[in-house]
Structure formats: structure tokens, C-alpha cells
Amino acid sequence: MAATKKIRIRVYVVFLGVILLLGAVSVRLFHLQVLEHSRYIKLAWDQSQGNLLTLPVRGKIFDRNMNPLAESLDTKSVVMRTASFDPKSESLQRVSNVLDISLEKLETQLPTSTQFTYLKRKLSPEELATTQALWAEAAIQSSGIFLIPDTKRFYPQRCLASHILGFTGFDEQGYDNHGLEGLEFYYDHYLRGQAERLQVPMDAKRNSLNSWALELKNAGYNLILTIDKNIQYMVERELENTFRNERARHAIVIVMDPHTGEILAMANHPDYDPNDFAKYPPEYYRNRAVAWDYEPGSTFKIIQTAAAFEEGILSPSDRYDNHNGFLDGSLHTSEEWQALKFLSVEDILVQSSNLGAMKISEQLGIQRFYEYMKRFGFGELTGIDLPGELSGTLREPKDWSSISLQSLSIGQEISVTPLQMARAFAVIANGGMLYTPYVVREIQQKDGTPVLQVEPTKVRRVISRRTAEMLRNILTHVVEQGTGKRAAVNGYRVAGKTGTAQKFNRAMGNYSSTSLVTSFIGFAPADYPQVVIAAIIDEPALNEWGGTVAAPLFKRITERILPYLDISPEQQRPELVAWMGDRIDSK
């Protein structure tokens, strides 16, 4: 009896244990399958996937007529699972031999924090063609090496507008698709789009499965420029010829619409091909139209003249005693026109008299001269949408020396950028208004939907229409009768000013007699200007005057641009001049 009772108790204990065990298992299963279902689904997914950060298709860049200047071509990149990296792997060695990959160098740079390693980025069409059969082999597919979709930045016009466009490359974190120079850098946030992290399928051994396809999303925005590809081409060809013929150090040309601030062309030489920028010295990347300053010389003489006209101090016909080339009986200026006893204000600009310019500045006075230099935009950024812009140097009057007023009147003791000078002449061309220059006129989504449309920005009125008209007439005579004769264009009236500036030698503390900057800045047609053109040649080796180096360059560019813009000589009629006045008044 006692034995039977003990057996019964044991059965109950075992049964109770089984019940408790089943209950515990049920509770655990409920916890895993219901309460933690999402967590374990995610864990299982993560274990079957690999993460790879990819960058989206970069936006395109077009000129004003929708000609492509920068685009991204479809290509492939080779990646492998970081944990699978083995320099002795036969598959890896075959891939490295075909694609000329240095495994030793790659091993030293192998990341430890990422699941995938790039073996080679952005394969060329030739590399894709020669390796097509390789990727179909089972041994390659199972070794953790595979291709992913990618894009490669391409500049179809090669060197054209390279200093405006810039280029892309790797940033400090090692990510590609980032703008490093030019518009690619300035508008990088709009162009590059949003990066995405891709989930790459893996097998049980954590090898990638190749039966998958990726679509790169979140494309960047497109830029529509103010630049005209054809005008840019004309400018660059003429600039290159002058640069080579004169054996110059640098050369710059800017073409601007004076009524809006739009940049139609901006060229530098030497230039470079952004498709292969690494083979050029970094100095070539610098856009000297905005990121280089110089002493302007005689082109600056328009500033005090404009100020004197605006203040009612002088008129074009007022005359000065030339003193046979002496100022205050002591300072001699060696000039072609020193034998003339009297010079009119117009003569001073037409013949580019240094002595006359100094006398105008003395009559104007220090404070008013300084105020007008500021009003014309000197000593400040123009605000153009390009990186690296310099403001130039304009010292306050308290820092001037006893001869600063005279020096400034002939374009010394001040540094300016080519763009600042082009903008100053645009003030005269458009009737007195200072505009903010710009190179991007619209930002669009991939489907063409506008994101941002840029409108011309008036900064301030600098001079009156009447003052601008007087200066336009004088600058026309500079070309017809004075130092700018070689800028004359058959069939058109053009206006402008020559400049030849000695470069200051900081080491010697004086101005060089051999290192010069020659320039011609003007506009056309003179009576209703449609373009301002600034041509600056740094250290020409053969000729030394703005009238013999830069003026002919201005001429050749102008005689190509005006017909292209459908501005024919017979259009220069009085009714169009009157229309020009109405256009100025409306500003």
C-alpha cells in the first residue's frame, strides 16, 4: 500500500513537472513569436543582408540653351565583403590582375568598420568589356566579389568652362560624388542628392548573391546656367591664341550682360580638363576672374571721372593746364601728350593722361573719391555664386599716405578682381545701376520642375543716367581717337578703356618695370550696350600695353559675339538708342 502511494506521488510530480515545462516553453514561444517577432525578423534580415552606402545620381549642369556641360554616366564599381579579403585568394588575384589593382596598397587601407570594400570604383567602358566574362564565373560569384551600379562624372565639352564648372571627387571622409571646385563645389548640396544605404543579399556563409539589381535613387537637382556655350567657346579660342602668342603668365576674359548681371562667358588660361583634373597642377584650378586681384592701372580712371561728373564738379569739356607734364612743379609724368598745354577732361581719358587723372582726383577730394569707389563695389565681394571670390583691397582714407590720392587716381594702391572691373563698366553701360553678377539662373528637379529661379538683383544706383551717358560717349572716343583704337570693330561703335599696370614687387618694395598687367574693358554696341567684355592679360612677354595686347583681343571677341547675338551694324539706329534710354529708365 505504501509502495503504491509513493508511485502515485512520483507520477503526480513528473506530470506536474511536464505541465510546468510545457507552460514555460509556451510562454517562451509566445514571447519570441509574438512579443519579439519584429526584433527577430529584423535580426534575421540583418544577418542575411550586407550594408553598402551608395551615392545617388548627381544632377546635370546645362548652359542657358540646355546644352549639357556636366553629367553622370552609368558605370559599375567592384566591391567585396571586407571579411572575405584575402590577398592569396585566386579569385581576388585574377580580378586585381585584370583591373590593375594593387592588393598590397589596398590591404594597408582596408577599412575595419564597414562590411564592404571598394576594389575599384567607376570602371571605364573598356574595363567593363574586358571583364564581362569574369563576373559570370561561379568562383568569382562565390568569393564575395561583385559589381554594383555606379555613376561617373563626365564633362562632354572637356576644357570648356572648366573654371566655372569645377569637378567632383572624394571628400575628407572618402565618399565620392562631392564637388571640389567651381559650381560643383558651390552648389554641391543641390547637385549631389541624398545618399542611400543598400541592403545586399547574402547566403548562409555571408557571401553575396549576385541575383539582384539596384536602382540609384534620390537624384540631385540640375543647374541651368547663364553661360552660353557658343560664346564661351568663342572667348576661349581667342583667349588661348592671345595667351600663346603673347607668352603670358595668365589671361582672363569675362562677358557680362550689363542689364542683369548674367555672366555669358568666363574664361581663364591656362585651363584644364575636369575629366582628368588630377594630371594638372592645382594652380590651374584657380578661377582668376574672381579669385585673383591686381592693381588695375588706367582702366580705373573712369571712377574719379564718374564721381566728378556726378557731383557736378566737372564736365567733359572742362580743361586743365598740363604744365608740360609736371604736377605741382615737381612730379613729372612721362606721357605722349605732355607737350599739350591744355587737356580737356575727355582728353584725359581718351589719351589716358596720368597727370590729368591726378588733377581730377585732387579736385574731387579724398572723401568723395573713397565714397564713389565703395559705391562702384570696390573693396567688397560682388556676391557671385562661385567659390573663392576675393574682395580686393581698398584702404580707408585714414590709412592713406600723402600720395595715395594721386596713386589711386591711376589705379595704384588698390587691388581689384577682373569681375569687379567688369561690373564697374557695366554700371556705365546700363545707365548707372550696380548689379549682383551670377552664373546659375535656375535649379530644376530631374523632371524639369523648377526648384529655384534666380532674378537679377539690383544692389544700388551708383550714378545717374546722364553721367553714364557722358562716360559712354567719352569711352567711345577712346576707341575712335585714343589709346583703344585697336579695339575698334568694323560696322559697330564700341566703347572702352585701356589699362597698363606695373605689378608691385613686395620683395623689392617698388613697382616693376617689366612685370605688367595689360587690360581692355569695354562694351558694345556703344549706344545700346548688350555685352560688357573685360580682357586682362597678366605679364605678356612680347607687348606691354593694354592698347596693343588686350584691345585686339576685345576686338576679336566682340566681332564674333555681336553677329551671334543677331546684333547687326544696321541696327544702330536712333530709335534703338531711344529704346535703350527707356530700358535704362525702367531700371
List the helices and strands and how they pair.
Layout: H1 2-35, H2 37-48, E1 49-54, E2 61-62, E3 68-81, H3 90-99, H4 103-108, E4 116-120, H5 125-130, H6 138-141, E5 145-154, H7 162-165, E6 168-169, E7 178-179, H8 182-186, H9 188-191, E8 196-201, E9 222-225, H10 229-246, E10 250-256, E11 263-269, H11 288-291, H12 301-310, E12 319-321, E13 326-327, E14 331-332, E15 342-344, H13 345-350, H14 354-364, H15 366-375, H16 404-409, H17 418-430, E16 433-435, E17 440-444, E18 450-453, E19 458-461, H18 465-481, E20 495-505, E21 510-524, E22 531-538, H19 550-564, H20 574-586
Parallel strand pairs: 2-9
Antiparallel strand pairs: 1-8, 2-3, 3-4, 3-5, 6-7, 9-17, 10-11, 10-22, 12-15, 13-14, 16-19, 17-18, 20-21, 21-22
Helix pairs in contact: 10-19, 12-14, 12-15, 12-18, 17-18
Subcellular location: Membrane
Domain Penicillin-binding protein dimerisation: 56-205
Organism: Vecturithrix granuli
Quick description:
With about 575 residues, the chain is of the alpha+beta class.
Any descriptors?
single chain; 587 residues; alpha+beta; Penicillin-binding protein 2a (Domain 2); Beta-lactamase; 2 domains; seven-stranded mixed sheet; five-stranded antiparallel sheet; 20 helices; 35% helix; 21% strand; elongated; disordered C terminus
